[in-house]
Design goal:
18 helices; mainly alpha; two-stranded antiparallel sheet
């Protein structure tokens, strides 16, 4: 039995180390990895998965997932049938994924250095593939750039027609970039700083070519955040890199007509909170008869003569999406309308001006509010803030406490969590396979390094 347990642990560790690779191959492969990690973890750890030194955090985590179930099945049984309600049960796989990752780290059975080294290697490979596509017209697989118009081109590399290369590079470069301090061994700090500067620019340029504007912006914010929280005297160099990256990006935007137009539309498309509030205050009694009809406002006879109606420029489309999302949240503010409910519920609002239907609200905060209400929002963000505060506090005093956890472990986890939950960031769906797998991987690591100190003491 001991030999079998050892083999189970080895296989489990290997799957976690290779987990970042699954993000290249898409949702099916990600789900296969998640299910295998969960099943092996359940077999190996059994009831000890639920042994936490800070049991309050486990309770809050359980309540968050129960809120997802409650909101989804309340909507299904007491409001209207929802084809997505079964997904609330399937979503529990991420709860167990977090528990398994946390247990591996708490029991000192997972090398985060290996995981981060692999993340770094994959971010580099994807970036090199994008450079090859830019220089030679196609990447190693023969994929060409995605041209959405004469002025908008995405170098997607290995991802082909999917416009997610920038998001991948952002996620795994933050996890991996600090690995250079473990990979390149030297006594001269200036060598480390030069190597770090090289990879900062390397990933910045690959993000520019990838064409995804929000990951590019978040990368700059990551560099600035890192320079601010870094606790040693070399922080002045890292702050200089952040400023240089920002200036370089600004020059590229100003010198390129393509990027200048895209930056302009991006800026103009930032939703104005004042406009959102004003629109939500307006009442349209003449449109009441179209409620729940699913008929878009622009198709109605009242399109031309509705009072108080003001049309806003669409730009990136986030303004009407945010208005629609908040409007739906206000209908069910406590527990929301259930997992992935926005795409089903938005048709109830499109008879009103400046509303639109999409698959999700394009912002984690709004999606969690919409799907799980204030209850789910407060539960998950309590855990995120708790982890950010406590892991940052541990990072600040790690050397005084002789912590076994390296600074180069604390920093990527703190910054990944901060960037991923950045409040005003436009995002994919929180509940999608791609994003949830990464989110609960990071949360599992965060809880693991936090709980590890209690086990040690």
């Amino acid at each position: 039995m001991t030999i079998f347990n050892n083999l189970t642990l080895k296989l489990l560790q290997t799957l976690v180390y290779l987990f970042p690779l699954s993000f290249i191959f898409g949702n099916f492969v990600i789900n296969v990895f998640v299910v295998l990690i969960v099943l092996l973890g359940l077999y190996y750890y059994k009831i000890s998965l639920f042994r936490w030194y800070k049991s309050k955090n486990l309770l809050i985590l359980i309540l968050f997932f129960l809120t997802i179930l409650l909101s989804s099945y309340y909507q299904n049984f007491f409001s209207e049938n929802s084809k997505d309600s079964i997904k609330a049960i399937l979503y529990l796989r991420y709860f167990f994924l977090l528990l398994v990752i946390k247990s591996l780290i708490t029991n000192n059975q997972l090398s985060l250095k290996i995981l981060f080294n692999i993340s770094f290697a994959l971010a580099c490979l994807v970036s090199i593939d994008i450079f090859a596509q830019f220089l030679f017209g196609q990447n190693i697989l023969g994929y060409t750039a995605q041209e959405l118009s004469s002025t908008v081109k995405y170098y997607t590399g290995i991802f082909g027609s999917e416009l997610i290369a920038g998001g991948f590079i952002l996620m795994f470069s933050i996890l991996g970039i600090f690995s250079i301090f473990n990979i390149f061994r030297t006594d001269k700090k200036i060598i480390y700083i030069i190597i770090f500067a090289f990879f900062v620019i390397f990933f910045l340029l690959s993000l520019i070519l990838a064409g995804n504007r929000m990951p590019l912006l978040m990368y700059i914010i990551f560099l600035i955040s890192f320079a601010i929280i870094y606790k040693k005297k070399e922080k002045i160099y890292f702050l200089s890199f952040a400023i240089f990256a920002f200036v370089l990006l600004s020059v590229i935007v100003l010198k390129s007509d393509n990027w200048s137009k895209r930056a302009g539309s991006f800026y103009e498309g930032i939703p104005n909170p004042i406009i959102i509030v004003e629109e939500l205050k307006k009442e349209y009694p003449n449109l009441k008869k179209y409620e729940n009809s699913g008929r878009p406002f622009h198709t109605l006879n009242e399109f031309e003569n509705t009072k108080n109606y003001e049309i806003y420029s669409f730009y990136t489309g986030h303004l009407p999406i945010y208005i629609t999302s908040i409007d739906l949240f206000l209908d069910k503010p406590l527990i929301g309308s259930g997992i992935k409910s926005f795409r089903n519920q938005c048709s109830k609002k499109v008879h009103l001006p400046n509303r639109v239907c999409e698959n999700h609200p394009h912002n984690y905060f709004l999606e969690i509010l919409n799907d799980t209400g204030l209850l789910g929002f407060l539960l998950i963000h309590y855990l995120v803030i708790y982890l950010l505060f406590n892991n940052y506090k541990d990072y600040r005093v790690s050397e005084k406490l002789n912590s076994k956890i390296s600074n180069w472990v604390y920093l990527p986890i703190i910054l990944s969590l901060f960037i991923h939950f950045f409040p005003i960031k436009s995002t994919g769906s929180f509940f999608s396979t791609y994003n949830s797998a990464f989110i609960f991987l990071i949360l599992g690591i965060s809880f693991g390094i936090h709980e590890f100190k209690y086990k040690k003491s």
